Amino acid sequence: MLKVENISTYYGQICALDNVSINIEEKEAVSVIGANGAGKSTLLKTIIGELRPKIGDIQIEGKSITHEKTYKLISRGMTLVPEGRHVFPLLSVWDNLLLGGYTLSHKERERRAEEVSEPFPILRERRNQLAGLLSGGEQQMLAIARAMMSNPKLLLLDEPSMGLSPKLVFEVYDKISELHQKGTTILLVDQNAEMAIDFCSRGYCLMAGRLVGEGTKTELKESEIVQRSYLG
After folding, report:
1. What's the pTM value of the predicted model, to 2 decimals?
2. Residue 232 has pLDDT above 70, yes or no
């Protein structure tokens, strides 16, 4: 599904990702853990085309997308739930959803909004409420549902637990797990290493822009560097 080969991404002269390679098979759930500033968000932004790697290649289903525009990647089946959710606070919940389906016809957008909101009953209950009045957890659910409007093959999630209470973190991860069980391939990055590792089938560990570990869920939990740095 996704192959990232030896990418290095810079902010000016500062190297944020250094020779990073990851791969994701279709219908897998893969996590990337790391502290704040490790390069997790930079990795997702590079994959989705918001940033360009200085070197390396990114492929979707065997075809290079390294120089593709972000809007073209959306139409090719990839979408991102950004860090901080970024809902439109002065628009209704339902209008936020409909904006996620901007490539669809009006009739198809309405049908798709009904479909993607089914796992999130709170969004249906508050469809006419301003999105800015939702709780942090509800906004995260809205951001995920909005991303699903394009019916992605690959869903990228950037820090889905950020700013949420422990109870809401569990609720959000339950919803993400439901999407995965229905067949969506997921790449998730999170500072909450314990939740991210429990969620994934495989994972990677980033530190200062470099990969320092990878493996199955069990291998990550048993990794000395992961235990020392993130699991206590």
Report:
1. 0.90
2. no
Instruction: Catalogue the long-range contacts made by 222-226 (C-beta closer than 8 Å, 24 or more residues apart).
Output: 226/33, 226/193, 226/197
Is the model's pLDDT at 72 over the cut of 80? yes
Residue 200's nearest CA partner among 167, 229, 157, 162 is 157
| Contact indicator for 159, 7 with CB cutoff of 8 Å | no
With 0-12 / 13-18 / 19 or more C-beta atoms within 10 angstroms meaning exposed / middle / buried, residue 130 is middle
Rounded CA separation 117/200 (Å): 24
Does the structure show a pLDDT above 80 at 231? Answer: no
CA distance 227 to 220: 8
3-state secondary structure of 49: coil
